[in-house]
Amino acid sequence: MPTKDAALRVSKAGSPSRYEWFRGMAGRRSQSIDQAGGYALSTVRGRYIIYAYAQYADGKRPDRALKTAAQQFVDYSVRPIDARAT
Q1: What average pLDDT does this structure show over 52-66?
Q2: Residue 55: Cβ-neighbour burial (10 angstroms; 0-12, 13-18, 19+)
Q3: How far apart are CA 35 and CA 59, in angstroms?
Q4: Distance (Å, rounded) from C-alpha 33 to C-alpha 55?
Q5: Rounded distance, CA 56 to CA 17, Å?
Q6: Are 33 and 57 in contact (CB under 8 A)?
Q7: Is the distance from CB of 71 to CB of 64 less than 8 angstroms?
Q8: Which residue has the higher pLDDT, 61 or 27?
Q9: What per-residue confidence (pLDDT) applies to 44?
Q10: Which of 2, 14, 44, 70 has the greatest number of C-beta atoms within 10 Å?
Q11: Of 56, 82, 81, 83, which is closest to residue 67 (Cα–Cα)?
């Protein structure tokens, strides 16, 4: 986003956990990926919005492992942004 304020406004405009930002794209091995459910997480760092969505390709219901995977992806993704800010 152009500014931190813009990123904060956009991040509050929709809920990633309600598919308001992105939708899954079905594939040969995951025909029902858009209905399977998963775990969404987002955060704002400066003017950046970091978004993660973890889902099992076989349609298995979300669990703690999925939440952990999404959180680890976000944590890993913010590291270079945080490093530049210091």
Answers
A1: 84
A2: buried
A3: 8
A4: 8
A5: 15
A6: yes
A7: no
A8: 61
A9: 93
A10: 70
A11: 56
Burial of 40 from C-beta contacts in 10 A (0-12 / 13-18 / 19+): buried
Helix (H, G, I), strand (E, B) or coil at 40: strand
pLDDT tens track for 3-58: 999 999 998 887 766 666 666 666 776 666 666 677 888 899 999 999 888 888 77
Q: Which two tokens stand for residue 1?
A: 């986003």
Q: Is the pLDDT of residue 60 over 90?
A: no
Report residue 49 as tokens: 């919005």
SS3 assignment, position 64: helix
pLDDT of res. 68: 94
Is-contact 20 38, C-beta < 8 A? Answer: no
What six digits make up the tokens of 73? 């992806």
What gap in Å lies between CA 17 and CA 6, rounded to an integer?
Answer: 20
Provide the pLDDT for residue 64. 92
